[in-house]
Amino acid sequence: MTPSGPAPADLVVRDSLLVATVDDHRREIPGGWVAVTGGLISGLGGPGDPPPAAVATLDASGCLVTPGLINTHHHIYQNLTRAYAPAVNGTLFEWLSTLYPRWAFLDEEAAYLSAWVGLAELALGGCTTSTDHLYVHPRHGGDLISAEIAAADELGVRFHPTRGSMSLSQKDGGLPPDSVVQDDDEILADSERLVGRHHDPGWGAMVRVALAPCSPFSVTPELMRRTAELAERLDVRLHTHLAEDPDEDRFASETFGKRTVEHFEDVGWMTDRSWVAHCIYPDRAEIARLGAAGVGVAHCPSSNMMIGGGGLAPVKALRAAGSPVGLGCDGSSSTDHASLWLEARMALLTGRARGGPAAMSARDALEIATIGSAACLGREGELGTLRVGAVGDLVCWPLEGVAFAGALSDPVEAWLRCGPVSARHSVISGRAVVRDGVLAAPGVDDVLRRHRAAAARIQGLDG
Asked: pLDDT for 353-407, tens place per residue?
């Protein structure tokens, strides 16, 4: 009887130009390959290490292979109001005040369609894990978070929805109308329900839920405190906006008698369980406190310039202080796109604009988009890196054609300095969600037709 050999891998991605592992040693493997078995990486090697037999293979010739990019801040439902004309030139508070009445028409169908379109767009652009901050929950709108999770499951995208909330309406001195706010007990009960129904704490989980009051100016201090206590009890993460706009500090000073970061600390959020969006305006002492506590930051460079008061987040200082810094697209109606490649390039450019040419490299931007983002989500060593035992999430980026002619010496720098580039293949848990630049999931045209109808209804353009 002939002894059987080792079982084949489920997938081998082979013949790359370069594999950038972003592992602890920052290995880069020219001509490298990656094997995935059971949803986890089971091997890596170069031309001198022949890959194992595999059930399926993907050709990565001419490609830089990286870990899948991770989106740590988004409002996917906002793709229903992209480039909404009445709001395009307002300040952050003006923009929100204009759009809240339109978002009051959000329902389960619209949430599902926006999530399907938004996550598909992200996957086509090399994002394999995305968060979403859905904080608008209209009366009678239904179970919006579960509708989003259904869309992620159909597409095969790793998803971290955050149960957002607002409890201060216009009558309370807040920005949103009464129709999209809820009381504290309702918010906390639904938060616990969603964690119980959907959250998977296991290694390689496809869905994890976090708790995410919208911002210091849209919820009560009591809700912030009670949410932090609930997250501790349920062992889930916390997310909110912080130090996004100068108006936010003015509001906090007038309302709470303190700056917004001090308020954040006073309500029990200054912990490594938290990650925050934007963080453009902390002062030097606040950066040190955030870093010492291990608070993560979702850097959203395009949005910061579009509606965030024009600030450039102090990314280098935050990282040096100890804060994990990840990358985020932010809402589709503020930046009007969902490309983490473009956000990585913007992180490179704004980092250098703020701190000079040595302040940010393409490798720094890649680290922010992968291991930095994974740390924000509490998934260090599991996501955002190519090493044995990590999840089988990776992207093949083609560095070919006119846009990359002459870019011969450094594929990682070429990846962001040249382009634009989108994924040839996006692999999630060993499955090609995007293959040869085409989404694997069927039904795109039907979803887009239905999305257009939902967007027209929400924008009041349906007649």
From this structure: 999 999 999 999 999 999 999 999 999 999 999 999 999 999 999 999 999 999 9
| pLDDT at site 2 | 46
Q: Counting beta carbons within 10 angstroms of the beta carbon of residue 425, is it exposed (0 to 12), middle (13 to 18) or buried (19 or more)?
A: buried
- Relative to beta strand 325-327, strand 9-14 is unpaired
Helices (H), 140-219: 144-155, 184-198
Return d(Cα 443, Cα 58) in angstroms, integer. 23
- Per-residue pLDDT tens over the stretch 1-32: 445 668 999 999 999 999 999 999 999 999 99
The torsion defined by the Cα of 198, 202, 208 and 212, in degrees rounded to 10, comes to 110
Residue spans of the domains in the chain: they are: 9-67+386-439, 69-376
Which CATH number applies to 69-376?
Answer: 3.20.20.140
Q: Which amino acid is at 117?
A: V
Q: In angstroms, rounded to a whole number, what is the distance separating the alpha carbons of residues 315 and 295?
A: 13
- CATH top-level class for 9-67+386-439? mainly beta
SS in 3 state form for 368-382?
HHHHHHHHHCCCCCC
State whether residue 312 is helix, strand or coil: coil
Residues 344 and 327: their CA atoms lie apart, in Å, by 7
pLDDT at 302: 93
pTM of the shown model: 0.97
Q: Which two tokens stand for residue 452?
A: 């257009």
pLDDT below 70 — which residues of the chain? 1-5, 308-310
How far, in Å, CA of 438 to CA of 423, rounded?
A: 9
Is the peptide bond preceding residue 420 cis, with omega within 30 degrees of 0? Answer: yes
CB 377 within 8 A of CB 74: no
Query: Residue 1: its pLDDT value, please?
Result: 41
